[in-house]
Specification:
By secondary structure, this protein is mostly helical. It is 79% helix and 2% strand. The protein has a two-stranded antiparallel ribbon with strand order 1-2. Bound molecules: protoporphyrin IX containing FE (2 copies).
Amino acid sequence: MKQGSLSQRKTGFLANFIANPKERRRTNLFLLLMVGLILVEGLFVYFNRQQLMTEDFRHYKGTFKQFGSIAQIGFYAAVAIYPIFLLLKNKQIKGIKLGTIELKTILQFVGKLVRTWHVPVALLSTGIVFLHVYMALLRGFKLDFTYISGIITVLFLLPLMYMGLMRFKRNDRNWHFKLAISFLILFFIHANFS
Ligand code: HEM
Ligand code: HEM
């Protein structure tokens, strides 16, 4: 019986990466949502391509920029895990009170929240940024700073996600963190200096 449940735990999708069944179920659900979102976005572009290709470019650009902005907020929320975990490890916060509540209690609550939603938010943001990228490229690639910085940013997002998967079992040799910081700097430059 014990052996049966053990083998069952090993057979789920991503079981080799994520040991905690609850966390695995949540990740699989949001992975499915991300794939669904990408499919819906693909269909949306396919069925509206006539209108999208002929629309005034400034208006069109305004639309896909909005998807980039929404994804950007999501990626900032995902990165928030780092400073919060850093503060939690800091011994100096012990004893600091905000009114009647200990700062550490607040940080522990926020830490649990960001840890739970880190992967779902990252997956949904990736699903949203797909439409930004797809729409940007649909009307043609331009050899300028915005398009090149955008492509480089996406090229960092893919290994970042894979290393995130390795991070569950601490098999990433800190690459998830290194790629996350590079990705953060890249999309900040792409979004604000174009
Ligand atoms: C993870 C990847 C990406 C993120 C997070 C991202 C995010 C953003 C954000 C936040 C903006 C500014 C929106 C605004 O000002 O309201 C933007 C603008 C833009 N992005 Fe991206 N983007 C990404 C990838 C790409 C890629 C791959 C391309 C195209 C190859 C691209 C093309 C553009 C263009 C053309 C603009 C408009 C710039 C302008 O104002 O002229 N982006 N992006
Ligand atoms: C599929 C996508 C992702 C997965 C599966 C994933 C997974 C993880 C895991 C398991 C951790 C360790 C949490 C802990 O120590 O308890 C982590 C930490 C972290 N993640 Fe992600 N993540 C993903 C996407 C992202 C993205 C898109 C960013 C950046 C925008 C990011 C930035 C970070 C940072 C800065 C940390 C803290 C440093 C570290 O522990 O390495 N992650 N992530």
